[in-house]
TrEMBL record:
<dbReference type="InterPro" id="IPR036465">
    <property type="entry name" value="vWFA_dom_sf"/>
</dbReference>
<dbReference type="Pfam" id="PF00092">
    <property type="entry name" value="VWA"/>
</dbReference>
<feature type="domain" description="VWFA">
    <location>
        <begin position="388"/>
        <end position="563"/>
    </location>
</feature>
<dbReference type="InterPro" id="IPR001881">
    <property type="entry name" value="EGF-like_Ca-bd_dom"/>
</dbReference>
<dbReference type="InterPro" id="IPR000742">
    <property type="entry name" value="EGF"/>
</dbReference>
<feature type="compositionally biased region" description="Basic and acidic residues">
    <location>
        <begin position="571"/>
        <end position="587"/>
    </location>
</feature>
<keyword id="KW-0325">Glycoprotein</keyword>
<keyword id="KW-0732">Signal</keyword>
<keyword id="KW-0245">EGF-like domain</keyword>
<dbReference type="InterPro" id="IPR050525">
    <property type="entry name" value="ECM_Assembly_Org"/>
</dbReference>
<keyword id="KW-1015">Disulfide bond</keyword>
<dbReference type="InterPro" id="IPR009030">
    <property type="entry name" value="Growth_fac_rcpt_cys_sf"/>
</dbReference>
<dbReference type="Pfam" id="PF12662">
    <property type="entry name" value="cEGF"/>
</dbReference>
<feature type="domain" description="VWFA">
    <location>
        <begin position="36"/>
        <end position="215"/>
    </location>
</feature>
<dbReference type="Pfam" id="PF14670">
    <property type="entry name" value="FXa_inhibition"/>
</dbReference>
<protein>
    <recommendedName>
        <fullName>VWFA domain-containing protein</fullName>
    </recommendedName>
</protein>
<feature type="signal peptide">
    <location>
        <begin position="1"/>
        <end position="21"/>
    </location>
</feature>
Length: 602
């Protein structure tokens, strides 16, 4: 089947010329000898008025290219929808002007699409001698041209076969919505010369061009309008398009597409195949070079150039050289130098007091007066410094879930160096955001393992930062005997530790002062955007010993070393000396980290 598409040049001519002149060949009219030609026109309701007008002009233009006369070409026209109507029969007119007048007066029927009925009428009536057809013994060719835009509502195959058997040559022209199967069932063989499918009524003139060429035997390639992109090959009354070497004909049978030899899978390229018309070449990925066989690829050894500047080892990658460090070392930001790894900062070392990095390993130290235990990490615990400790943990939205998990881990590291028991240290935990929630009171758990398990089960609250409300809750509820605090008569120190990462959304001054008036020793630990002024307002005096700060959640563990000496009285001296040394170092580095120590005289 040949699909007809309008070339840009032809489209321009269509816009600039009258309809009647578009379908005529230059020069004298076609002289084909005797011919009986009947046009069978679909005028069903699916053919819109302007489309029917286009088909009317197509007929007029085609007539002007034929040698019409009683002894030459006789023309008849019938239209059909749900019924068949003869516009004029074969013997009605001998003058072209009379035929054109009848076609211009044609009124569409605008009903169904009974194409089979129209073919039967053409076979039995239109091509009869009574209607003006020449008798069979005259051997005058009989040609029917069926133009339709839809699917037939009746059977066409059998009646079309009968018509062809009676010697009628049928051309089937489908427009827009026409059913291809029905066109093939109607047309005479060979189908590629008798079936035409055009995209719209505006393009029907291309069928007229080829049909007239078949009748007249003209060289349609010379006449122009063939639309072939590369080559036009002329045949008797027709033509076909061909492509230059390295190209193949597209589905429209006019355009040419470059043959992609890479898609055939026989190129042998290891990485990429680059196609060109009728040929191809191989290309390698970045970081590789093409071998002499022009197909395989070899990785480029960037390290062999000797300009990588790596301190330890050079590893070649497809993007270039990369430097690696030997075990126990880390690559510095310059991407070349290596530095010995500080395992104390890079791993969860578990040292209770202090971690000392030593090349590929580390060791734990204990403060003065204490000995390292058999596990190599813990120190002998304080048995005299029993306190009631309540931790106020910031669970606001700014903390974020992953950092809240680091906070819980930090709390459990504090619990690790406490002697947790009903008679020793009691621990309670309160979380606050826009509201306050007691996670567990002082008197609930009697062992460190129970406390740590409860801490891990705490769920992140999110929302705001009401630090003042949390301080009030601690003063009024957390240190009550009902919550597990020991009576004041026993003189067990009461310690509150507030952990926050930002500015409070309510006033803290009243309840921070009230906590101290109640004899609670207050510590403040700030992270990230915590406000120093608020931390000092929360903490007991002197602030330098009760306020700690860390720039981010990942580096909080260094605060533990300052906390460990704050719980036990016998550690006080060593812890104070350590705090003084720490303050001196951080003063020199302009850092904002303060040591945290419990006042044993509270």
């Amino acid at each position: 089947m040949r699909g007809l598409l309008c070339s840009p040049r032809l489209m321009l001519l269509l816009l600039l010329q009258p309809w009647e002149s578009q379908l005529q060949f230059a020069g004298p009219r076609c002289r084909t000898g005797p011919l009986d030609l009947v046009f069978v026109i679909d005028s069903s309701r699916s053919v819109r008025p302007f489309e029917f007008e286009t088909m009317r002009q197509f007929l007029v233009g085609l007539l002007r290219g034929l040698d019409v006369g009683p002894n030459a070409t006789r023309v008849g026209v019938i239209q059909y929808s749900s019924q068949v109507q003869s516009v004029f029969r074969l013997g009605a007119f001998s003058r072209r002007e009379d035929m054109e007048r009848a076609i211009r007066a044609l009124v569409p029927l605008a009903q169904g699409t009974m194409t089979g009925l129209a073919i039967q009428y053409a076979m039995n009536v239109a091509f009869s001698v009574a209607e003006g057809a020449r008798p069979p013994e005259a051997r005058v060719p009989r040609i029917a041209v069926i133009v339709t835009d839809g699917r037939p509502q009746d059977r066409v195959a059998e009646v079309a076969a009968q018509a062809r058997a009676r010697g009628i040559e049928i051309y089937a022209v489908g427009v827009q919505r026409a059913d291809v199967g029905s066109l093939r069932a109607m047309a005479s063989p060979p189908l590629d010369e008798h079936v035409f499918l055009v995209e719209s009524f505006d393009l029907i003139q291309e069928f007229g061009l080829q049909f007239q060429g078949r009748l007249c035997g003209k060289d349609l390639c010379v006449e122009g309008g063939h639309g072939c992109q590369h080559q036009c090959v002329s045949a008797l009354g027709t033509f076909h398009c061909a492509c230059n070497p390295g190209y193949q004909l597209a589905e429209d049978n006019k355009s040419c597409l470059a043959i992609d030899l890479c898609t055939e899978g026989t190129h042998g390229c290891e990485h990429h195949c680059i196609s060109s018309p009728g040929s191809y070449s191989c290309r390698c990925r970045a970081g590789f070079v093409l071998q002499q066989d022009q197909r395989s690829c070899r990785a480029i050894d960037h390290c062999s150039f000797g300009n990588h500047s790596c301190q330890h080892e050079c590893v070649s990658t497809f993007r270039g050289p990369r430097c690696h460090c030997r075990e126990g070392h880390d690559l510095l930001p310059d991407g070349r130098s290596c530095q010995a790894r500080d395992l104390c900062n890079g791993v969860d070392h578990g040292c209770e007091f202090q971690c000392v990095s030593e090349g590929l390993s580390y060791r734990c130290l204990c403060p003065e007066g204490q000995q390292l235990q058999a596990d190599g990490k813990s120190c002998n615990r304080c048995r005299e410094g029993h306190v009631d400790l309540v931790l106020l943990v910031d669970g606001s939205k700014s903390v974020r879930p992953q950092n809240f998990e680091l906070v819980k881990r930090f709390v459990n590291q504090i619990v690790d160096f406490l002697d947790v028991s009903p008679e020793g240290t009691r621990v309670g935990l309160v979380q606050f955001s826009s509201r306050v929630r007691t996670e567990f009171p002082l008197g609930r758990y009697g062992t460190a393992a129970e406390v740590k398990q409860a801490v891990l089960a705490v769920e992140y609250m999110e929302r705001g930062t009401m630090t003042g409300l949390a301080l009030r809750h601690m003063v009024e509820h957390s240190f009550s005997e009902a919550q597990g605090a020991r009576p004041r008569a026993l003189n067990v120190p009461r310690v509150g530790l507030v952990f926050t990462d930002g500015r409070s959304q309510d006033d803290i001054s009243v309840w921070a002062a009230r906590a101290k008036e109640e004899g609670i020793v207050m510590y403040a630990v700030g992270v990230g955007k915590a406000v120093e002024e608020e931390l000092r307002q929360i903490a007991s005096e002197p602030a330098e010993l009760h306020v700690s700060y860390s720039p981010d959640f990942g580096s909080m563990t260094h605060l533990l070393e300052n906390l460990r000496g704050s719980i036990c009285p016998e550690r006080e001296r060593a812890s104070r000396r350590g705090a003084e040394r720490e303050a001196e170092r951080e003063s020199q580095a302009s850092s904002s980290v303060w040591s945290l120590k419990r006042s044993s005289n509270a």
